[in-house]
Amino acid sequence: MSEKKRIILEEMTWPEVREALDKGMRIVIIPAASIEQHGPHLTLITDALLGANAAYALALKLGNALVAPVIRPGLSSHHMSFPGTLTLRPETFAALIEDYITSYVRHGFKIIILMSAHGGNTQTILKLVPELRRKFKDTTIIATVEVPTIDELEHITKLAGLPMGACGGHADDRETSEMLHLAPRYARMSQAKQGFVGKLDEKTLNKFFEQGVTALSDTGVVGDPRNANAERGAWYIKQTIDRLERDVRDQLRKEGIEIESS
Ligand SMILES: [Zn+2]
How many structural domains comprise the chain? Predict the structure, then answer.
């Protein structure tokens, strides 16, 4: 961690945080992830680790942002049939986000970027934003989503030259490759199994969220992680970070905030 730029709040001292604020680093990125099953081969930390990495990379791109401690458990009721998964009540999750913002606003942060790093959190976060904006009138609050949509999953599967269904969005080729790149100790490739590789659409997605992941896959995998590799993991991460940077800059521009390219 020592070679990393000092922008991860929990790894900074208070004078370092004050100095960063004084230098104009008024953006804080709050990644909201999950601690949940990721098939028989990836560990429960997957979304928290990938979310932390994405938030750090996005902060570097923006140049004047710090990274909040990852909200590690999220909304994972659809994964609860697998042991080890944690899930929060939606009201607990909402309260956590609000308390993070209250703390950072008090210390002078002006722009809050909520980052959903887990599919189950996304809709709740997007719904919270207007309410949070009403509560924190002098603060710019936006949300961005690290998790790819169904269309983006199809797109990256094609670009990667993989069979359709390999990137199904959960413990799939993408997440597994990213973990092989970032933290291979958390990927047990001998246990990797093909999961649901059928067509993903709104209907299958609703089934996934309402009935739980076992309605699609009895191993908890949506996609095919068996051929994952670290090099492709780095490529997937780059795709995601570029998309996140574009999205955040677009949203801030609409708020009249232009951030210089770093
Ligand atoms: Zn995940």
Answer: 1
Q: What pLDDT does residue 38 have?
A: 98
- Residue 124's nearest CA partner among 244, 9, 209, 35 is 209
SS3 40: coil
Q: How far apart are CA 45 and CA 183, in angstroms?
A: 10
Residue 260 counted as domain residue: no
Distance 107 CA to ligand 1 centre (A): 32
In-domain check, residue 99: yes
- The single-letter code of the amino acid at 128 is L
Domain contains 57: yes
* Separation between Cα atoms, residue 75 and residue 92, nearest integer Å: 10
Q: What residues make up the domain containing 161?
A: 10-254
Q: Which residue stretches of the chain have pLDDT < 70?
A: 1-4, 261-262
CA 223 – CA 146 distance, rounded (Å):
18
Single-letter amino acid code for the residue at 162 = L
Rounded alpha-carbon distances, angstroms, from residue 155 to 66, 194, 208: 31, 20, 21
Determine, yes or no, domain membership for 262. no
pLDDT of residue 57: 98
Tell me how far apart the alpha carbons of residues 209 and 78 are, in angstroms, rounded to a whole number. Answer: 6
CA of 13 to the centre of ligand 1 (A): 31
Domain containing 67 — which CATH number?
A: 3.40.50.10310
Q: 173-182 vs 230-254: helix axis angle to the nearest 10? A: 100
Q: How many helices (H) and strands (E) does the chain have?
A: 8, 6
Ligand 1 center–CA 118 separation, angstroms: 6
Query: Is residue 113 helix, strand or coil?
Result: strand
pLDDT of residue 262: 60
